[in-house]
Design a protein that fits this description.
It is globular and about 60 Å long. The chain contains eleven helices and 20 strands. The chain has a single domain, classed as TIM Barrel, CATH 3.20.20. The chain is an alpha/beta fold. Strands 3-6-7-8-9-10-11-12 form an eight-stranded parallel β-sheet. A four-stranded antiparallel β-sheet has the order 2-17-18-19.
Amino acid sequence: GAGAAEEARGAEVLDAGGRLLIPGLIDLHVHGAGGGDAMDGTAEAITTVARTLARLGTTSFLATSFLHPEGGDAHLPVIAEAVGKDVGGARVLGQHLEGPFISPARRGGIPAAALRPSSPELLGTLLERAGGTLRMMTVAPELPGAMALLPAMEAAGVVASFGHSDASYDEARSAFDAGIRHVTHLYNAMPSLHHRDPGPLPAIFETPGVVVQLISDGAHVAPPVLRWTAATLGAGRCACITDGLRSSGLADGRYDYGGRPFEARDGIARYPDGTLVGTTLGLLGVVRRFAEYTGLPFATAVDTASRVPARVLGLEHRKGRIAEGFDADLVLLEDDGSVHATLVAGVPVHRGSTIDNR
């Protein structure tokens, strides 16, 4: 109405030129991009990650890390300083810590030196070091003492996420009965399904409300399994993530992850022994593949990286949708699906050369 038009006067107007506008994407699980990594322990690295992610269509993210084999938790306060700040790129919503209370048998790309026995004292220290910015922690609930940490995590506003776990069905069932409602990169770093030794997967699928992260690049999870997962759970319980590393947004080549070398090739990152350690696609690329492999509409795939993660973080009232009163985190796409412009809180942080400002 006239009131809305009056209120909008004086605002910058961007002519989208008929391009597709989608909500800004939210990555619940990303370690780095553009040559920077959350574990580098510098403000410059976080800024590099944030600006690169914006160029790739992500407008907010959880800076993801584990305990550094040498520096321990020294990077946590540095990330905390960046949370919520305008660095000319995607906004850091908080931190996601993978471990240290995870299974040695299912640590995947996380170094053994980054693991610790479950401890209320260590959890308290990590919460303090993160300065109230820890929003998610991946935990293996079958570890001695791990389940006892869940109330303290909930009280601190931390989403406990099942992952890097060697849990049996019964152990996983107990974890979900205790209130865990999120899963870190479903299928990766956990036992597979066997008809006589079911493992955690049936417990995940049968628990209402559990949201699962999916690295839907087609390498970490095969396309038929992605299609079956989306059909079985429903896309509203799937959160596409990247688990992206410092090589995201850069050319193929050799890089490092937590001090260990890896090779990025064709959008996939692997250690020299072949272990998968993440995708180097941006979240938009992962979303596009999710749509392709599942046969779902692109708009539904976008929801898995916008509405769904916003709900996981309790931000569904202001992020994840294009709606009045919501944060103006927006991505404008070219006809070929590439990013033309990215806006965070209504401010362009990445734009193509042809965008018309008037």
